[in-house]
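Milestone M4 deliverable, item 7.
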Amino acid sequence: MTPSAPRRPRLALAAITAATVVGGLGAGGLVAAAGSSGIAPPCVACAGFVTGQLLREPPTLVSAHGHLDVTLTPGTRTVLVAGRGVSSQTYSSRFTAPTLVVRPGDRLNVLLRNRLPVGYLPYGQFPPAYTQPKGGLTNLHVHGLHVSPKAPQDDVFLNIPPGHSYQYRYDLPANHPSGVFWYHPHHHHYVDMQTFGGQSGAIVVRGGLDDLPGIGNLRDRMMVFQGTEVRGHATTSSQYEVPAKRLILINGQLQPRIDIRPGESQRWRIVNATTERFLRMAPVGGEYWILARDGVTLAHPSRTRMLFLAPGQRLEVLVRAQQQPGRFQLIQTYFDQRPTPFGKQPEVQVATVVVAGTPMAPQAVPTELGPVEDLRGADIAARRRVVFSQSPPKFFINGKRFAHDGNVAPMFRPRLNTVEEWDLVNKSPEWHNFHIHINPYQVVAINGKPLRGQPYWADSLAIPPGSRITIRQRFADFTGRFVMHCHVLVHEDLGMMATVEVIP
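Output delivered:
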C-alpha cells in the first residue's frame, strides 16, 4: 500500500461464506468488513491520464452467413490508454481488441499474424527469479468456448514464432450455449506479459437471453476490464510495481462514465481480462441481478449485493437504475490476494455510474431464464484431487510444474461423455483461480458442505487459501489434449498448469 491509500484490514477466511467463495453472491457484508466507505481513496496510478470519459464499446465484428473472418496481428504499436498515446504489444490499433460476435453452428476463422518483436521483453521484470524468457512466441486461446482442443481449433500447444502466421478455424456446435467468452494468448511463459500488454478481447455467442423478453430488448453494454501499467510512454511488465501503481481499465478507458436513465434497465456484460485482479465491486445506483456466469445462463436471476469476478471470469448482469438522479463511484474494494506487497490490491474507483436524463418506467425482471443442467444426481465415473501449492518462484499442481512440450504427459485422462468429481485444494497462502479449457464445471460443495439452490456453473473459480472446492464436469463431445491452470497468469507461466487428455 502507498501512503495515499489507507490500509484496509485483512479479511479473515472464516468470515468468507461459501457463496462469497464461488462468486460473491450475498456478500454485501464483506464491503463493510473491507472498510469501504463508498468513496474511493485517490488513485495513485491515475495522474496524467484522462478520466471520466463516456464509456465507449470496443469495435464489434459480427458473423454473417454462418462464418466470421478475423485477422489479429499482435505487434508493437502506439495505442490510446486512458487518453495517452502508449507503446504496447496489442492485437489491433486499440488497447482492447474487437468483440467477436457469432452464433451457434458458426465457423470462426482467425488469421493470427505474429508480428511481435524477436527477443521482446517488457520493461521492468522484477525480481529476477520471476523474469520471463525473451522472445515473441504466441498462440491463441478462445477462453470458455466449447470447441475442439485439436488444431486448427483451440490447440494451446501450438508455437507461432515472430514473423509467422497461423489460420485458426473454430467450429461452434449447433447447440453451443449463448453467452460471453473471450480470447487471449496462451503460449506457456508468455501469457502474462502479452495479456498485460493488451492482447485480449471479448467473444459473444448470440441466442438464449438475447431472445428473452425483458432482457433481449435492453441496452446491451460490453465492459472488458484490463490491467496494465505505464512507465513513460510504454507499458511495462506486470511485475514492475505493486498493484497501487497499476491501472484498471474498462475498454481501454480509465474510470469511465456509465450512463443510465432513472428507472432504466440495462444488460451489462462484464469480462475480467486482467492478469491477476480479483474484482469485487458493490453495486451502486440501483439494483443488480446476475443472469449468467462464464457463458452459462442461470435458471433464475439472482439479486446480488456484490459483483465478484476472479481473473478470467465473466458475468452478465441486469442493472435497474434507481428513480432518483445521482452520481456514484463504482469501487474495486481492497483485496488481500497474497501476503506480499504485490498481493495487496488497493481500493480504487473503476468507473462512475451516472443516473440522469428522462426517467423510464421500471421493467419487471424476468423470473425464469431457462433450464440448466444439474450434475448433483449424475453417475460419477472417477474422483480426482487437484492440489495447488507453491514455493515462489515455483508454482505446482499436484506437486508438478508444467513445461511447454508437445509430448508433455497428461495428469488426468477422463473418458469422453463421462462425469467426474474433482476436489480443488488450495494449500498455499494466497488465492488462486481454477480454469479448465473446453468444458465448464458445476460447483457442488465448499469445504465439504454441499452447495444448495440453483446449479452454479463456471469455467474460472476463485479458491481461497486453505479451502477445498468440489466440482463436477462432463467431458462432452471432444477428445484430445488441453490444459487446466491457475488464471492468475504469472502463476500459470511459472508452472501452475497441467495437461488433461479426454480419451474415447
